[in-house]
């Protein structure tokens, strides 16, 4: 059974949902804070007086999230590591008894799981500290856009608060912008980090097992939803570890017949190919053991409804719009505003339905049904 970063994809989704729900809870908390006493003349000074309380509430939401998420991240990584190992064992059934037996011995995944979990959790640290500043930042933003004169009107307070909240909801609470200028909401950021780690755990488990069985070659196969980045590697045979590297022809022993050799065209090493982008996060391509003389390259059937990798990325983008409008609904200062945002949520959900129906893609209802705390 080939292994792909995609085999662990839905494990990361669970964690994305946790973060999305926490992000909604945070925005609702800030919205309630701004909405409280909005008609009172002392509104702005009341906000200033309560910044610390709101900060404590935000801290409590983040603490609960961290406890919940840390355990689930470890679980997801352990599961991904297990799946990667099982994939290798399933592939090695054809080997001589001694080798297959070596492959059947489980490799403890704990060190890899611990290392990858630490990386993901540490990576979220700066995001958490940024979020903790949100109440102060929101207060400053409200003060900056309001003059003493405009603060007299309750409507103006509402509009100002709404503008600040909308900015927060649209960007996502993290306000994190990557080097390519893309803004990440908290859930997308966390999910991306977990997805890339679970993908790595599955691939590492698989190659570790192949190593234990003395299998040195692997073959790359593309899936119906393959990505252009990986196309140059499709059907190529690679060495599992970086040795001499580079494309070459090698004479290797037949996997099951003694004294027979097989000529194999090797395109390079797996570490080389991965450095060039193969098996990137979101990748659909897969690798499996290449058993000389036994493994036949698989041909890739096209997707039955013509879906492409780009369609899956489009679906992801639409899911981000759903989440964004759910945040906007949570940030709404008036019922009208909330109704408008919810209408946009339903529009994007309908668009996802249309795309997945047309292309025969799997919907991820879990991601579209993120519940607000209210
Ligand atoms: Zn790929």
Mean pLDDT: 87
| Count of the domains | 2
Total E-strand runs: 7
Shape: elongated
One letter per element, helices H and strands E, the order comes to HHHHHHEEHEEEEHEHHH
Structure class: alpha+beta
Range of strand content? 5-15%
What is the helical fraction, as a range of percent? Answer: 55-70%
Over the alpha carbons, how many angstroms does the gyration radius reach?
Answer: 25 Å
Largest sheet: 5 strands, mixed
Q: Which strands sit side by side, in order, in the main sheet? A: 5-6-4-3-7
Question: Counting H and I runs of at least 4 residues, what is the number of helices?
Answer: 11
> Which ligands does the model contain, each kind named once?
zinc ion
Amino- and carboxy-terminal Cα gap: 44 Å
Detail the poorly predicted runs: none
InterPro entries: Phage_A118_VSP1 (IPR009319)
Protein name: Phage minor capsid protein
GO molecular function: structural molecule activity
Region (Disordered): 296-319
Gist of the model:
This protein is of the alpha+beta class.
Brief descriptors of the model:
single chain; 374 residues; five-stranded mixed sheet; two-stranded antiparallel sheet; 11 helices; 59% helix; elongated; binds zinc ion; Phage_A118_VSP1; structural molecule activity; Phage minor capsid protein
């Amino acid at each position: 059974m080939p292994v792909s970063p995609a085999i662990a994809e839905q494990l990361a989704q669970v964690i994305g949902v946790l973060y999305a729900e926490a992000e909604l809870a945070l925005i609702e908390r800030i919205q309630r804070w701004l909405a409280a006493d909005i008609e009172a003349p002392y509104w702005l000074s009341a906000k200033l007086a309560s910044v610390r309380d709101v900060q404590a509430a935000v801290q409590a939401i983040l603490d609960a999230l961290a406890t919940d998420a840390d355990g689930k991240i470890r679980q997801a990584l352990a599961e991904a590591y297990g799946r990667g190992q099982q994939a290798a064992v399933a592939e090695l059934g054809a080997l001589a008894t001694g080798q297959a037996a070596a492959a059947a011995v489980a490799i403890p995944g704990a060190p890899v799981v611990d290392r990858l979990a630490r990386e993901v959790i540490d990576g979220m640290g700066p995001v958490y500290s940024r979020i903790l500043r949100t109440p102060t930042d929101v207060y400053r933003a409200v003060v900056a856009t309001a003059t003493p004169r405009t603060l007299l009107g309750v409507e103006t307070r509402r509009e100002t608060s709404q503008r600040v909240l909308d900015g927060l909801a649209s960007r996502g609470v993290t306000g994190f912008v990557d080097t390519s200028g893309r803004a990440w909401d908290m859930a997308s950021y966390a999910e991306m980090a977990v997805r890339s780690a679970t993908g790595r755990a599955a691939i590492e488990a698989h190659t570790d097992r192949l190593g234990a069985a003395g299998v040195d070659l692997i073959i790359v196969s593309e899936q119906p939803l393959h990505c252009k980045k990986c196309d140059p590697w499709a059907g190529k045979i690679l060495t599992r570890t970086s040795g001499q590297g580079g494309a070459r022809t090698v004479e290797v022993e037949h996997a099951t017949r003694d004294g027979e050799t097989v000529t194999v065209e090797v395109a390079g090493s797996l570490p080389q190919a991965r450095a060039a982008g193969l098996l990137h996060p979101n990748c659909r391509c897969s690798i499996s053991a290449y058993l000389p003389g036994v493994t036949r390259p698989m041909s890739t059937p096209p997707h039955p409804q013509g879906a492409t990798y780009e369609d899956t990325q489009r679906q992801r983008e639409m899911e981000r719009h759903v989440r964004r409008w759910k945040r906007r609904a949570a940030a709404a200062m008036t019922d009208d505003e909330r109704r408008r945002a919810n209408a946009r949520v339903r529009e994007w959900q309908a668009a996802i339905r249309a795309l997945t129906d047309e292309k025969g893609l799997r919907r991820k209802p879990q991601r579209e049904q993120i519940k607000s705390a209210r």
